[in-house]
Amino acid sequence: MTSKRKLYREDEKLFFLHSYYQSGMSKHAFCRAHGICCPALLNSWIKKYSNLAEELSLPSEQESPDMSNRSKEAYKDENAQLKKRIKELEKALSFSKLETEARELMMALIYKVTLV
């Protein structure tokens, strides 16, 4: 019994390549999930259409400013904002602790009153 090889049209190959680049899956897992016989076939398509790799792959992310490219003022501003936020959170935590102590004191007083 001979196995019949599946022949793929060019548009199918390009579709699979585009899907592969977007999937983030390993070649083996992608081939298994899409019914492609083996990763070697996918590799041959990648080689054949390597000139189209940029068009088929995910669009490159906008480059975020590198830490090394930031100015000293930007660091100072960010540091000041973070310190301000820390103070706000510490204040909120202190207030929450006071509320908890007040509730516990009220519960203790209620407990004493009910025992008398």
TrEMBL record:
Q: From which residue to which does any coiled coil extend?
A: 72-99
Q: Transmembrane region positions?
A: none
Q: What keywords does the record list, in alphabetical order?
A: Coiled coil
Q: Which domain of life is it from?
A: Bacteria
Name a biological process GO annotation.
Answer: DNA transposition
- Entry keyword annotation includes Coiled coil: yes
Manganese listed as a keyword: no
Give the GO molecular function terms: DNA binding; transposase activity
Could you identify this protein by its name? Answer: Transposase
